[in-house]
TrEMBL record:
UniProt xrefs under Pfam families: NAD_binding_11, NAD_binding_2
GO molecular function: 3-hydroxyisobutyrate dehydrogenase activity; NAD binding; NADP binding
GO biological process: one example: L-valine catabolic process
Classification of source organism: Eukaryota, Sar, Stramenopiles, Ochrophyta, Bolidophyceae
Protein name: 3-hydroxyisobutyrate dehydrogenase
Known pathway: Amino-acid degradation; L-valine degradation
């Protein structure tokens, strides 16, 4: 079990300690790459794998050990996954177990189906291994700054064992309950976030169409009752905020296709318990149309351009 001395690491660990507490990180996308980098900068030994060789090489330059396959990560005491979907996570868990993974704890920071997450926890428990679902909120900026919020589902003892790692990558660690509850919290959060983004984009587009300066309108919204994260921290209108995807042609953020995936998971989970999601369903329809217009790789704030009718070579 990890030492509490790893809490908020301020100096590199010794060689022997690093070897004993190695972390395997699988999935170096826009979020995962920064999360793994923050572990490295705190002195944690990281062994990384991703299908994108450029992402792996970038992390290697920062001191990570590179794995040439998932099977070659069986020596990692802790595994962290940041993968696109439930099937990816299921396949990775199966591969590691079949390869004889010697580690103790699995941290899944992907956003997946809560039922799948719960089932994986039960399967790992039968193998004598701990598992927490720990999806995140805070976006790419939060991942880079190490200020993510982790929504954790799992046993308290398992969380305590790996909490120092989470605290290196995030600022808020919230224990939501049993395995799967972290995923439920994440889907509820993203459902609200997507609805808010569409509403913010709709209002900004309306104001612009009526001749109102978007910066002035955004300033009013951010000091009034419509204030939300999509408006004051991640505004979708180009030029309103610096350092957000809207100022970079909606590149480098949270892809619209990923938001569509999360909306699908959220509305499916809600349907299973007969929880009404009329706004969620309408928002899902919008992102489905964006996907059909080849806008899936653009940040989900590109919904503003969709509402304006700007969909590249296709007519919205």
């Amino acid at each position: 079990m990890l030492s509490r001395n790893l809490h908020k690491l301020t100096r590199p660990l010794s060689t022997s300690t690093r070897a004993a507490h190695s972390v395997g990180f699988i999935g170096l996308g826009n979020m995962g790459a920064y999360m793994a980098s923050n572990l490295l900068s705190s002195g944690v030994s990281v062994k990384a794998f991703d299908l994108n060789p450029e992402a792996v090489n970038d992390l290697k330059q920062k001191g990570a050990t590179v794995a040439d396959s998932v099977e070659s990560m069986t020596d990692c005491e802790t595994i962290i996954t940041m993968l696109p979907s439930s099937p990816h996570v299921q396949a990775t868990v199966t591969t590691l177990l079949n390869a004889g993974w010697e580690g103790k704890t699995w941290i899944d920071s992907s956003t997946i189906d809560p039922i799948v997450s719960k089932n994986l926890g039960e399967a790992l428990a039968k193998e004598g291994k701990g598992k927490i679902d720990a999806p995140v909120s805070g976006g790419v900026k939060g991942a880079a700054a190490g200020t993510l919020t982790f929504m954790v589902g799992g046993e308290s003892s398992t969380l305590d064992a790996v909490k120092p790692y989470l605290e290196t990558m995030g600022a808020n660690i919230v224990h939501c309950g049993a395995n799967g509850s972290g995923q439920t919290a994440k889907l509820c959060n993203n459902l609200a976030m997507a609805i808010q983004m569409v509403g913010t984009a709709e209002a900004l587009n309306m104001g612009d169409s009526l001749g109102l300066d978007p910066k002035i309108l955004a300033g009013i919204m951010n000091t009034s009752t419509s204030r939300c994260w999509s408006s004051d921290s991640y505004n979708p209108y180009p030029g309103v905020l610096e350092g957000v995807p809207a100022g970079n042609d909606y590149e480098g953020g949270f892809g619209s296709s990923l938001m569509l995936k999360d909306l699908g998971l959220a509305t499916s989970a809600a349907g299973a318990v007969k929880s009404a999601t009329p706004l969620g369903n309408a928002t899902k329809e919008i992102y489905t149309m964006m996907e059909s217009m080849d806008m899936g790789k653009k940040d989900f704030g590109a919904v503003l351009q969709f509402l304006k009718g700007n969909c590249g070579n296709k007519k919205c």
